[in-house]
């Protein structure tokens, strides 16, 4: 009698090649490409004062006056090369670990939740600032890893995410110019998204179900950022 193998309930079904990191590569390319456009559009001025940042950075005042795209675009803009580099290192590490654990589609969903959750938090708790950077989305990845690791008892994933989160928060909490509202907002939203990825039996939900649930969370965060 032959038995048809079924995918593991604990591990996302993934290709056996480097193609499993396609989504992560796209996220990295987007952040790098947009930064290069920032530099090209304002080559002789500080990037933070460049045209692209001024028209795409997160500003609660401008969002209130119809510039809704800032809720998303701010997460792909950076203030300097060092700012970009630090975020890319964290993105590659956390994004890679989470892709291996839950698959690239779910990783992207958590990233998106972190980005929108970060924007929502900044608008609520730091409305007078102009904020840019992918760190809110990256904290979302950490939050997703924490929840998935906890609910599925993946000790390595849980400890790694917890160590990164504690180290990053403790090392930046008193640094001026760092958006703590964005970091905490991304972390909380990532936790919510991670919780939606795992069912009551500690199994990863199917990609279709996970997409629907996290998409609903994304809509709530985006609309919330518009109306608060």
What does this structure look like?
With 228 residues, the protein is an all-alpha fold. The chain has helices at residues 22-41, 51-56, 60-64, 70-73, 81-102, 104-125, 135-151, 155-172, 180-197, 207-227. Helix 1 (22-41) packs antiparallel against helix 5 (81-102), helix 6 packs antiparallel against helix 9 (180-197) and helix 6 runs parallel beside helix 10.
Task: Provide a brief overview of the structure.
With 228 residues, the chain is mostly helical. The chain has ten helices and no strands.
Question: Which structural traits does this protein have?
Answer:
228 residues; mainly alpha; Rhomboid-like fold; 10 helices; globular; disordered N terminus
Overall pLDDT confidence: 92
Largest beta sheet, briefly? none
Kindly provide the name of the CATH class: Mainly Alpha
Structural class: mainly alpha
Q: Strand-residue fraction?
A: under 5%
Please provide the count of β strands: 0
For the record, the CATH architecture stands as Up-down Bundle
CATH topology label: Rhomboid-like fold
Number of helices: 10
Helix content: 55-70%
In N-to-C order, the SSE pattern is: HHHHHHHHHH
Q: What is the radius of gyration computed over CA atoms, rounded to a whole number of angstroms?
A: 18 Å
Task: Write down the domain tally.
Answer: 1
How far is it from the N-terminal to the C-terminal residue, by CA?
Answer: 61 Å
Contiguous runs where pLDDT drops below 50 for at least 5 residues = 1-9
**Gross geometry:** globular
The CATH superfamily is identified as Rhomboid-like
